């Protein structure tokens, strides 16, 4: 009798455990309940409220798509968004171009026509200013 009681006590937790199929059934029932609640909630809303929720859902989907594109772009997974590194020839040409323009501007500025004469005329009334004794 004592052995039978011990055996029964050890078997009780086994009966309480759910099997995989039981878990799947309860998850499926919960999904159905959630879908029914969502449908009932949508039925209670007016036409304008449903339209507004649809617009919000559309904006959310746009945001999620842009967010996913940004992640693909940053990780380099999307070939459409791969940024090319400038080549060495492009860099050299840009240096030559900027250097040439700088040289030309400096050369033009250094011409005699850009310099004022060494004799500077005194402004009107210069004699009246300054030290008077």
Provide a short characterization of the protein structure.
The chain has 4 helices and no strands. With 133 residues, the chain is mostly helical. 0% of the residues are buried.
Number of helices: 4
- Based on secondary structure, the structural category is mainly alpha
Query: What is the helix/strand order?
Result: HHHH
Portion of residues within helices: 55-70%
Mean pLDDT, rounded to whole units?
78
> What's the overall geometry?
elongated
Give the low-confidence spans: none
Task: Please describe the structure with a list of short key phrases separated by commas or semicolons.
69% helix; mainly alpha; 133 residues; single chain
How does this model look, in words?
By secondary structure, the chain is mainly α. 69% of the residues lie in helices and 0% in strands. The chain contains four helices and no strands. The radius of gyration is 42 Å and the shape is elongated.
Topology record:
Elements: H1 2-16, H2 20-44, H3 47-75, H4 88-110
